[in-house]
Input
Amino acid sequence: MVLKVLDASGKATSEHLSRFIQEYTLLSRITHPHVIRIYDQGFTDDHAYIAMEYFEQGDLRTELSAGMNQRRAIEVAVQVAQALGAIHERGIIHRDLKPENIMRRADGSVALADFGIAKSMLASENLALTQTRHGDVVGTPYYLSPEQASGQPMTPATDFYSLGVMLFEMLAGQRPFRAESLDVLLARHLTAPTPRLPEEHAALQPIVERLMAKKPQERYPTAEALLADLQRHRSP
Output
């Protein structure tokens, strides 16, 4: 177990505290093997804390940097898709899917973590904590969906786009879009075609392209639909 602690004593902490409380509120509703386990939340006069699962293996970035084979990439994508299915069913969009938010256990399984900017699609559960001004860019630029890049409304399909970027990176060993400036990078998410995977992974190109479709309605409609395609390529 590990404690995530926030200094709650300063005057400028209200937004951070709101996101901190939001993270616990959202995660406390979810029990799933591929979503980080949350045990407790508490407050002192000066601090707030969340007690959560500890991952001694670190995040997926370490494994990605060392290189991943196709079997492992599909295995991780399947587990992340299952996690997304679980949160989407509860009306939650993660909005910041990236390797640093995919945590690894000793048994090789992974868990989706860091819901600090997640947004509930259920108005009654927004708690006035998840509102984002129209036009704000939320998320990590390399994994942003086109709708995030342009400040448009987000849906569960937003998370599928980011998973597509991750899957491409796991297979190709590099991100699909790179640029020397943020503006150019966002423009590529908005307009550039999905690059081709290395030839040995060509069979997975249709999955990556559907995940990374520019229009949300052209991506997978549900995690179950994505999982059906991934399972066809999963080694026995």
In short: The beta strands are 2-7, 38-43, 47-52, 92-93, 102-104, 110-112, 119-120. The chain has two domains: 2-52, 60-232. The two ends are 33 Å apart (CA to CA). The first strand starts at residue 2 and ends at 7.
